[in-house]
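Chapter review: from sequence to fold.
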Amino acid sequence: MTARRHLLLGAALAPFTGLGLAAAPAAAHPAAPRFVFLILRGGMDGLIAVPPVGDPSFAGARGPLALFDGTPLKLDNSFALNPLLPQLHAMYGQGELAVVQATGLPYRERSHFDAQQVLESGGSQPHELATGWLGRALAAASDGPGGTAGGLKAVALETAVPLVLRGPTEVDTWAPSALPDPSADLVARLEAMYRNDPALAQALARARGLREEPGMGANPPAMGGAGGGGNQAGRKAAVGLASKAAEFLQHGSQVAVLEMGGWDSHVNAANANGALSNNLRTLDATLAALREGLLPGGLWKRSVVLVATEFGREVAVNGNAGADHGTGGAAFVLGGAVHGGRVIADWPGLAKKDRFEGRDLRITTDLRAVVRSVLADHLRVPRAALDHSVLPGSAGLAKLDLLRA
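The C-alpha cell string follows.
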C-alpha cells in the first residue's frame, strides 16, 4: 500500500467514521473480558482526589489544599473521595471501585514527558522500552475462555496510537470529526477504485460496517483545549468519547484507551471553579458514562477500568495556592469485575519525616503491580510474558488481588 493511497482513503473516511486504518483482529469472543485504560496527563493531585482525612498531619501539611467545596465522601476511617466525585463514590458503595493510594512509578524525577513515557512503556526508566505494556500484552493475552494467545482487538479514542498500545498487534484509532459525512456517490466510487486492493477494500468495508452498526452512528463533539474537560463543552466531549468507547467495546473491541489532559495543578488547586475541580467533575461524569454504556448485555460485569496518572503532587502548597510536581499519588480500578469497596494503601503518612525527599507522598505500591494484576487475572496474560516482555523487571512485585473471586 503506497503512502498516497493510504492517505487518500484515510482522508475520505475521516468524516465517515473517524476510524484509523489497521488490519485489526477479529471481534472479541462474546464472553471475553473488556479493559479500558484512562490516562490522566499532567499529574493528578492524589491528595485532593483521595484525601487521607484520617492522617493527623493532613490538614497541617496541606494547608488550603485540605479544604474542599463540600464534605469529603467517606471511604473508610482513613480516606475519602473528593466531594466532586459522587458517582465514583456510588460505585465504591456498590463494590465496583477499588482506590489505590500512595502508588506510583519507579521513575522519581518529576518530568512530565519522562514520567509519561515510563507510565506507557512499562519500563523502569525513560526510553528503556520503545513500545507500550498494553501493546505487548495484546499479543500475549488469551482472546476468550479457552482461547489462544494474541489477536485481541483494541481501539484508541485518539487521532494516533498512543505509546501504551504500540507493539506487535495492530490497533484501530477513532476520533470525532467536524467534517460532514461523505456522500453515497463518493463511497461508491471509493469501493470501485479499491475493489482490486484487498487491504483498502477491507478497511473501507470495516469503516462502513462500523457506521451501520446499531448505536455506532453518533459522532460526539471534538475535544476542545488541552485539558478537554475544563468546561461544559469539554465535559460533554469527554463524556461523548467515553460513550463511544463503550460502543466499540459493545461491538467487538476488547480493549480501549482514552486520555484526559490538564491535570498539572500548579495554581489555585482548591478553587471550586478552577481547572482541577472542573477536571474532577469531568472525570466523574466520564467514568459514569463509560459504566452506563457497558451495562447493556452485562458487559460491565466483565469490565475493568484502570485510571492512572504519571505522578502525584508535592504535599505542601506552593506560592500560587497549588502544588508542584511530586511522586506518590492515587489510581482507580473500577468495573463490575473488580473487587471494590476498599482502599488499597500501605499508608506512609504525611509528616515531613515520612515524605519522599521531605517533599512528596512516599510510594508504597508500585503502579506496575496494579497493571500486572489486571493483565494476569483479567486479560489472562501468562506470567512468563509479564516477567520477560510485557513488564520486564516487575517479577518481584507483590501480587494484588483486584478482581472478584
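Two observations follow directly from the output. Residues 34 and 249 are 7 Å apart (CA to CA). The two ends are 47 Å apart (CA to CA).
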